[in-house]
Amino acid sequence: MKYKSLFQLMGLSGLFLIITAVIFTGCFRQVADLDESDFRDPMIRKAQSKIRQGDKEGAIACLNNALESRPNLAQAHLSVALLYDDYKKDYVRAIYHFQRYLELRPSAQKRGLIEDLIRQAKMSFAASLSEQISETAKKIQALEKENSRLKANIRELRKNLAKHVRTGKSREMPRAMEPLSFAHRGEIIPPAQNKPVALDQQVSAVAPTSTVYCVQEGDTLSLISAKMYHDPRKWKAILDANSSNLVSSDKLRVGQVLIIPQ
Hints:
This protein is mainly α. It contains eight helices and two strands. Strands 1-2 form a two-stranded antiparallel ribbon.
């Protein structure tokens, strides 16, 4: 009668609360026992030793090795999640391992705390993405600026080449020299047949048997010699023929016109 009167006073709701508390107390004790069992795993104990020594990278390696052999080792998931979150700032992996722990220990007493850590990791990941997008935008802007600069250089080179062509035609350039308009493609300009070339001051005294060549990107005197003479060792002849405007063999400019003696 004593117990009956107690239950009558508490009502069904109070009785439900008592039963729930007993169940949850048992669940929490069971989770604690499981976690304690996990801590006895040799790789987890080794990871804890690494952490005490300040070797967090080694601890992460130990925990991952433990999970390779025992994927359901809940405490290993939680420990490595904390390291990924706080030390590595690898929020995606941290979230994964936090969630795996909750899947394996759904009734863990610290569930609320871990869910808070997951939310914080998600916010940190979103912030890091924002920073990455900003850095990417800066790199794209720098590339666009560099692209514009290169385009301006190309336009200037074409303008200079066109100026050479117009200057040559204004001085009644022989028909044999008209292919110079294609010299920017690296084509060789044929020699004049009856009189010297009158392209500009540089080539005004070209011998009838000489050829004119327009310097291209990556050209060297040895490379030009190989193209013109099929012998890279004759580069000195080209240097001597252009001594008035070519100080040394390494001072070539793209678009520069050279006399190639035969």
